[in-house]
Description:
Order of helices and strands: HHHH
Radius of gyration: 13 Å
Low-confidence stretches: none
Distance between the termini: 50 Å
Amino acid sequence: MILFGALVLFVLAVVWAVLGLHALLLGRVPGGRLRRGVRQPRLWGAGALLTLVSWNARSPSLLAVGVGLVALGYAAKPRS
């Protein structure tokens, strides 16, 4: 059971990293619901990658910055 949980957690981390890299490099988020919700995909992608780095480094301050960037990606209006 622990092995299954570890495998699921690993798969979720890989998916989160791919979504973050896609948003950061290409400037858009894949998917329908996620694309409609995220206003600043590059901020969102940077935050997604920082949350993964903070998980690996066990750094709560990086986690807070990453979650803040993900939230800004949802809330910040795009510059015209």
